Amino acid sequence: EQQEKWVPRAVNMEIIGTYAQTELGHGTFLRGLETTATYDPNTEEFVLNSPTLTAYKWWPGGLAHTANHCVVVAQLHSKGVNHGVHPFIVQIRDEDTHMPLPGVKVGEIGPKLSFSTANNGFLGFDNFRVPRDSMLMKNAQVLKDGTYVKSRLSKLTYGTMVFIRVMIVTDMAYYLSVGATIAIRYSAVRHQSKPKENEPEPQILDYVTQQHKLFIALASSHAFRVTGQWLWTTFVRVNKALTSGNADTLPELHAVACCLKAVTTRDAASMVEACRMSCGGHGYMTSSYLPILYGITTAACTYEGENTVLLLQTARSLVKAWQKGSKGKPLSPTEAYLMDKSPVPKWENTLDGIIAGFRRVSAGKVQDCVSKIDKLVKMGTSYEDAWNQTSVRLVAASEAHSRAVILATFRAEVSRAAAALSPPLARVLHQLVHLYTVYWALERVGDLLLYTSIAERDVQELQQQYEDLLQKIRPNTVGLVDAFDLRDEILNSTLGAYDGRVYERLMEEALKSPLNAEPVNQSFHKYLKPFMQGKL
Ligand SMILES: CCCCCCCCCC/C=C\CCCCCCCC(=O)SCCNC(=O)CCNC(=O)[C@H](O)C(C)(C)COP(=O)(O)OP(=O)(O)OC[C@H]1O[C@@H](n2cnc3c(N)ncnc32)[C@H](O)[C@@H]1OP(=O)(O)O
Ligand SMILES: Cc1cc2nc3c(=O)[nH]c(=O)nc-3n(C[C@H](O)[C@H](O)[C@H](O)COP(=O)(O)OP(=O)(O)OC[C@H]3O[C@@H](n4cnc5c(N)ncnc54)[C@H](O)[C@@H]3O)c2cc1C
């Protein structure tokens, strides 16, 4: 009945909430959170408290001035026992006056790299009392007398984060479609330099280096959209099983959500930055929207689980899978390839050959990590220290695993969908799959040389395949970004508008600046003139 109490009010916006988990002192290590919720059986209330400065919640989006409620993650104490972190839904502001309630300290954390509209806030409690039903009791409960009833699965507390991580993969597909649209449209309008003296300045989109910078962003948008859809379908399936009490598939979902969130956010941020830089000085204008877009995408590398920490979570799953598989036990579908003990096959410069190659790389890296950890432990190093000393390799193994998942999913889903598409459209999408796959083979050629039978001539051929694909995709590039069908109001970009009037739009935006309100800015009279007259 808690959902009946809170959900309708949230849906009709009586309740504006945020998720208050991170504190000044802890973001990653949730078991280290300091906010406490101590149950008082005499009043059937929880007393929320921030015992230290580092216990203050810090970062929750909308917390500073928008939210009037929040989900607070706190250490639950009852009958003198700390039962660990649990979620509580807490009203923090008066619903009429919006004033902070007594015992609640809330405010803005200050300027950030981007996301300036998110009013991220801080929140501290001074022995703030909330009724017992503030504890979200879907998984664990506290009875009226203070008896704690533990969840059938403690990890369910972390479920919200899996959901957001799953959503973020699709978010990255969207952000890349925006960046690619802006940069490719601008590259079609911008003419620069004279490689051929007797010909006009060409579109910068005709420079192969420009195509190399931009087409991967276009292809990655499709790869992440397809992978995000697969991940969402997986999430729905796992959640359905959880509802019926079966948690067997949750570990696999957690592991794959972690590495996909980490890799897609890192790729999106670096590719949006490449889109910005490919637009020269105008890409550095706020009015291009590319700097803001970079700020938004790079934030995703940190929020909802810092990328390194998440890749290490996946590595934890891969190492456990290797150990499990080595004992002959079955592995989850996404990790089953780790147990492929067949001899390394002759390298094939095909999509299937490259995908198989990335699986070999991932399995080889995981095996190397397990061997290094085992060797260190046998030499007397603690497992924790051995893990830390191997962690750079563990992150690389996770990344290789994630890339193998994306490559395989992108190829499989486009192949499956192609049958229902017109031949020209199917051909273009296959070209994007091919470009994405060959791009990453070339980016990770060192790993392929270490763990597969790829030879120098294969690499040379892949490079040529890649350059041929750039040439094949070029004629459809503008059509492909137009197909994202992003309205000018959404693009919010002087460089990416559909009409291509970039110079007029740049000037229109410049003239809106208050600094252009008068021909001589007041700074001349206040500072320059006195300085020039030696009076400053
Ligand atoms: C219908 C409604 C529509 C609503 C629309 C929503 C649209 C959303 C769009 C989203 C996109 C953009 C908007 C986002 C804006 C910004 C939001 C940002 C919000 C935040 O940042 S919230 C704070 C996020 N914080 C974190 O992610 C913290 C990260 N840290 C951790 O997760 C944990 O501390 C840890 C790193 C996992 C380590 O914890 P711990 O030491 O306890 O765990 P162990 O490593 O020892 O592992 C224990 C055990 O538990 C398993 N496990 C860990 N986490 C999970 C999990 N999440 N799920 C399942 N299982 C988990 C782990 O595998 C271990 O298992 P094992 O022992 O190996 O069996
Ligand atoms: C734009 C934005 C919006 C946010 N919105 C919210 C929100 O709405 N609600 C909310 O609760 N939080 C929110 N956050 C906070 C976010 O979830 C945390 O910043 C994030 O979880 C990382 O925690 P941290 O900042 O404490 O960094 P730390 O955990 O201190 O990490 C710092 C560094 O230490 C490394 N590190 C930490 N632990 C390990 C480890 N075990 N092994 C190896 N390296 C490690 C990390 O890799 C990282 O390099 C937001 C953050 C941002 C940037």
Automatic annotation (TrEMBL):
It is found in: Peroxisome. Its cofactor is FAD. Keywords: FAD, Fatty acid metabolism, Flavoprotein, Lipid metabolism, Oxidoreductase, Peroxisome, Signal. InterPro entries: ACOX_C_alpha1, Acyl-CoA_ox_N, Acyl-CoA_Oxase/DH_mid-dom_sf, Acyl-CoA_oxidase, Acyl-CoA_oxidase_C, AcylCo_DH-like_C, AcylCoA_DH/ox_N_sf, AcylCoA_DH/oxidase_NM_dom_sf. Pathway: Lipid metabolism; peroxisomal fatty acid beta-oxidation. Its main location: other. Gene3D superfamilies: Acyl-CoA dehydrogenase/oxidase, N-terminal domain, Butyryl-CoA Dehydrogenase, subunit A, domain 2, Butyryl-CoA Dehydrogenase, subunit A, domain 3. Pfam families: ACOX, ACOX_C_alpha1, Acyl-CoA_ox_N. Residues 352-533 form the Acyl-CoA oxidase C-terminal domain. Residues 158-319 form the Acyl-CoA oxidase C-alpha1 domain. Belongs to the acyl-CoA oxidase family. PANTHER family: ELECTRON TRANSPORT OXIDOREDUCTASE, PEROXISOMAL ACYL-COENZYME A OXIDASE 1. This is Acyl-coenzyme A oxidase.
